[in-house]
């Protein structure tokens, strides 16, 4: 259902933004952990939403995690429009 996908995307966005903010910490160990978490979050995003995200965009998101936020927002917008055009899909 679209409602479930939107909820998952919003959760991924929160996790992504939190993890990106953790990258700036002075502790090297925490930064390494945050980097691994970013890869996992972005990987999940691509695995679950590859209908909306190209492989090139996925690669760019791995290099520039802020770009993944843009991809999430775009996917949310697309799914929201689909839901409003097809209320039974929500």
Q: How many helical elements?
A: 4
Helical residue percent? over 70%
SSE succession: HHHH
- Specify the biggest β-sheet: none
- Tell me the structural class: mainly alpha
Number of strands: 0
Determine the strand fraction and express it as a percent band: under 5%
Mean pLDDT: 91
The low-pLDDT segments are: none
Rg over CA atoms: 14 Å
Shape: elongated
Distance between the termini: 6 Å
Question: What keywords describe this structure?
Answer:
single chain, 90 residues, mainly alpha, 81% helix, elongated
Protein model, in words:
There is one protein chain. The model has no long low-confidence stretch (mean pLDDT about 90). Helix 1 packs antiparallel against helix 2, helix 2 packs parallel to helix 4 and helix 3 crosses helix 4. The chain is elongated and about 50 Å long. The termini are close together. It is mainly alpha-helical.
In short:
The chain is mainly α.
Write the layout of secondary structure elements.
Elements: H1 2-22, H2 28-49, H3 55-63, H4 65-85
Helix pairs in contact: 1-2, 1-4, 2-3, 2-4, 3-4
């Amino acid at each position: 259902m679209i409602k479930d996908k939107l909820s998952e995307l919003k959760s991924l966005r929160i996790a992504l933004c939190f993890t990106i903010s953790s990258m700036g910490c002075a502790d090297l160990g925490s930064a390494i952990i945050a980097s691994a978490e970013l890869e996992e979050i972005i990987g999940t995003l691509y695995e679950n939403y590859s209908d909306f995200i190209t492989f090139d965009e996925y690669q760019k998101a791995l290099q520039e995690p802020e770009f993944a936020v843009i991809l999430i927002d775009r996917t949310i917008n697309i799914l929201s429009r689909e839901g409003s055009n097809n209320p039974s899909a929500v």
